[in-house]
Amino acid sequence: MQCIPCTRYAGGMQQTDAAHARLRELIVGGAYAPGERLTETEVAGVLAMSRTPVREALRGLEADGLVRSADGRGVVVTALDAAALRDTYRVRAALEALTAELAAERQAAGRIAPAELTALEADTALTEEATAAGRFAEAVTYNRRFHSRIAALSANAPAQAVLERLWDQIVVSTRASLDPPHRPALVNGQHRDLLAAITEGRAADAAGIARRHVLDTCG
């Protein structure tokens, strides 16, 4: 059996990771719409890469739920149907309750730097400002960053990784119907309540607010 030099293998993995990251960015960012077909050749041209890392990247994105196989003719960008979207929100609600609880526990134990809470508060304000100005795509970006910061503050890597995949699926599946958020005052108020519960180290309250918030935004 011929051994593959470690440097060659590492280089291939780096290319695959780069292809995965860039293609994920394009899909989540809306460059490729749900239902759009992608082929290895086309994507390799767009990314200026060979087909091998692109092929592996597409397999990874299929595992992430962002694309599905199209009968051997490339892949198709996937959007969740209404039932699957509801299920995804319920899983997200459970995980965000966990990460909010853990973040509050870490804050109570003095393990979160003040600057991290300041950044979380800034994202809350930016979300409110963008929503009030009617910049809804921008508000979605700030809103996701707010929730991603809480996941990071939980220091629970498995929950954080799953939440990122769920967020990707939700963003892709709801982009076409992007409209003013329902009850923006409620949503903004829940962000403020969640921020306060984490800042004050109230773990149980943080978990309850986070779960209720996600389910309220399900639509």
TrEMBL record:
InterPro entries: GntR_C, TF_FadR/GntR_C, Tscrpt_reg_HTH_GntR, WH-like_DNA-bd_sf, WH_DNA-bd_sf. Residues 13-80 form the HTH gntR-type domain. Keywords: DNA-binding, Transcription, Transcription regulation. One of its GO terms (molecular function) is DNA-binding transcription factor activity. This is DNA-binding transcriptional regulator, GntR family. It comes from Actinacidiphila cocklensis. The lineage of its organism: Bacteria, Bacillati, Actinomycetota, Actinomycetes, Kitasatosporales.
